[in-house]
Amino acid sequence: GLNGDDFLVLGLRNGRVIYSYNLGSGTATIISKPLDLTLNIHVIHLGRYFQKGWLKVDDQRNKTVTSPGRLVGLNVFSQFYLGGYHEYTPELLPNGSRFKNGFHGCIFDVQVRTSMNQEFKSPGTPEGHPNSGRSVGQCKDSPCSLIKCRNGGKCIEGGSTVYCDCLTGWKGAFCTETVSVCEPEHDPPHLCKQGSTCVPLPNGYTCHCPLGTTGTYCEQG
């Protein structure tokens, strides 16, 4: 999708599953009915064979679509990304996909096949061992059960990403680093005026003033 119009994407928008692909001569799109949010796990079957595509979500009826034009092959020479295409750089997503965010959530199981006469199998070589992964949770244990925040910090789950929300005075991935009185995240912030330098002391801090200023916080000209 980076060097042309060809792409294949699956995502969620406004509670519906959207499946789109473009073989180079126009986009074909299928949109499901709204998801049944009482279900804990959703099952999606989708496929493409030449120009024809199909999508079945949970117990909804199977939907089909045919892409426009005469092109029948999907020319994608890069990796196939499942669960988030560099979700922090959405500008790398194909323009036609119209998705602005990467994946949030967890995936219970994935099976794929590359031709109609193959059996479905788990991706990766060996089977079930994908190339690499990032920010895609597996629907079993909570990621927070694997994270131990220190010094009163609280583990927060955001999609499939976790982080420690630290108490005042602490920072770092696991809240193990103290916040210096001179750092901008210290509460309360230091009072050194802009252009001066805050220097921590055993009991508080002092302000080193630039030429032309004076005062406790370099506030006087």
From TrEMBL:
Spell out the disulfide connections: C166-C175, C209-C218
Among InterPro entries, the record links this protein to: ConA-like_dom_sf, EGF, EGF-like_Ca-bd_dom, Laminin_G, Neurexin-related_CASP
Please provide an example of a Pfam family that matches this protein in its UniProt record: Laminin_G_2
Annotated Laminin G domain residues: 1-139
- UniProt cross-references to PROSITE patterns, sorted A to Z: EGF_1, EGF_2, EGF_3, LAM_G_DOMAIN
Print the keywords alphabetically. Disulfide bond, EGF-like domain
- Cellular component aspect of the GO annotation: basement membrane; membrane
UniProt xrefs under Gene3D superfamilies: 2.60.120.200, Laminin (2.10.25.10)
Q: Which SMART domains match?
A: EGF, EGF_CA, LamG
Query: The EGF-like domain covers which part of the protein?
Result: 140-176, 178-219
Which residue windows are coiled coil? none
**Would the keyword Disulfide bond turn up in this protein's UniProt record?**
yes
- What's a Gene Ontology MF term here? calcium ion binding
The cross-references to PANTHER family, in alphabetical order and at most eight, read: PIKACHURIN-LIKE PROTEIN (PTHR15036), SP2353, ISOFORM A (PTHR15036:SF85)
Name of the protein in question: EYS protein
What species was this sequence derived from?
Podilymbus podiceps (Pied-billed grebe)
Q: Which gene encodes it?
A: Eys_0
